[in-house]
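User: These chains co-purify. Model them together.
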Amino acid sequence: MALTPEGLPAAREPGTGPGSGDTRTAGGTSPGSGNTGTADAGWLRVHPGSPFVRGWVAVAALFFFFGRDSFERLLQGGPVFDERFAGRAPWLLLGGGTLLLLTVLGFVLSWYFTRYQVADGYVRVNTGFLFRQQRQARLDRVQAIDVVQPLLARIFGLAELRFEVADAGESAVHLAYLRADEARQLRATILAGASGAAGASGAAGASGGTLSPSQATEPGQPGTAAVEAPERTILTVPPARLMGSVLLSEQGLAIVAGGVASVLLSAITENRSFTVFLIPAVIGLAASYWSSFNKGYNFTVAVSPDGIRLRYGLLDTQAQTVPPGRIQALKISQPPLWRLFGWYRIQINVAGYGLAGSAREGSHRTTLLPVGSLADVLKLLSLVLPDPGTADPAGVFTAGINGLADPTGTPDTGAQETAARQDADGGFVTTPRRARLLAPLGWRRNGFTATETALLLRSGRWWRNLVVVPHQRTQSMALQQGPLARRFRVADLVLHTTAGPVAPRLIQAGLDEARALLDAQAARARAARKRQTSEHWMEPTTPSAQSPAPDTQEGPHHG
Amino acid sequence: MPTEAIDPPGIDWLRVSPKYVTVRLAEWALGNLIAVVLLTLPLVLVLNGAWTWPPLWLAVAVPAVWLLLAVWRLVLIPRQVRSIGYAERDDDLLVRRGIFFQRTLVVPYGRMQYVDIAVGPVERPLGLCTLKLHTASAGTNAEIPGLPAGEGARLREQLSARGEARLAGL
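Assistant: Joint model of the two components:
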């Protein structure tokens, strides 16, 4: 379960820290040390029960450790307290009681010293009573906000809030646990601060990140706090489709193939031992199916002015909010078997989420759509790229997802003819025909096209992929060529983006086209960066408001 | 087969110091010396009669092949160093390297998060340094080795100034 890593340090703390005497004084001065007034008013604590929800494993282990002896004797039919035990009982009780007391004390202290505040365009969190940590993160630096409810927390009506900045490591701010409605309220407050909506409505002339005090300092009170932006459900994934997609996914295919192979081997060699290998395979299959199903169940995509909101989960539920413009790159992919039903999957790179499969997060956080039809995919693309930068977005994207170049390929001469062919294929420029030996299957797929706002890279004949990178999100680019590729005068273009499951790479483009693309893309990215609007996505972008603003606009970018 | 450069035409590349060859040679010597010594160990043991398994031809062939590859790489070093280049354009920095495996990298100034300068033990007496650019992407492996120290410092200041002027968010 997700909470175990958290529980252990919480349980270890009491061993090192019965030093509450000096820390209390420090705790007393800390909130008062800053400037008076609004900055200090909004300090709040997480829910008092949260350390127990986080550290239940530690408490359970304690009971297990001391209860095991008696329990075993009980099972063996002996008396619960034999003489030997009766002699030690006071010591055991004392030891256990002390340990329990220390654990609980540690919980209480860690709870007492964990405080958070949302004010003045920052979210601040203070934690720790021996080793103190004070952390603050700019609201407009938010990359994503998640509200996570593991099963146990859900039973108690609690939720964890994670505030991600572009760090790709741990969450910048990690509040576990709040009451569920409190967590949602806090999310709304943070998003209001980050979007600039609060600044725009409250203090019109102020620099965007500042919240007006009445809105900022009392996130717990619905009356004065920011209202949650209204949201509209875009699509849901029916459980049956999810089940089918999980069964037909790559892992299912691989494991079924392994099973068939082992059964065949046992039949041929008349050796039963091969079937033994099936048992871990089945367990692994069941576990991965369960995890995919649990994480993808009831997957809902909604859109609000604060960005795209994803909700999912059967036992552990999660709600992710990705504000506009935070998606660095996006990949639409289709495993071979999904083609039967026309299903697709969308994965995204978000700076705060980091690499898929890292630590305990798994890949679900970077999934924008676990399974969906072409219509669903196009709908989501229109959310991620509100301005597709082309007159025929559906045609271009469909060509990117399913298209195939003309078998005669893109000839080296005859520009007019080429243009006509490319138009039929959504404008995609594919691997030249001379390099078809390098990619006998994929050469008609591997290609790129650029709209005014994004670069589209497609690849894969059986494993279809389409990568979309908005121009203003390109970090850097590299043109690469090995000796084999040089023989065919082709080159690869790699686009660098933040860590995540999407690694944009244009495979085997003709050298001249790739060279031209490198220059053109650098120019497009440059133009897009100049156009890039403020990170406060709700701020009014009237020219009059922008002209005096370069200093304040520039300010957030430096952090 | 003549090598056709993959970089866009019309760029004046600044080349790194020829003294960087020395650094590469030192690295080459260190790495290959250890490898060859380790690989000849079985040969010595077989010749002594201490080992019976690898057959003599194998014990000879493995270090010989390694040595051959190492010499091949040694021959390539000066050309590889000559192939490293960088160019400052108005809005981005270009870095190229490689002959067989070519790579041309474009880093917009506005995307740079920070600039590193590193000096190794072999580079220091030669007055060289290695400059490294970092963007928000781990994939940007923008390294310019073998810069004269003065040029490295100039480039760092230049890049910082230009990055400041054109800084964009993520």
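The first helix of chain B runs from residue 20 to 48.
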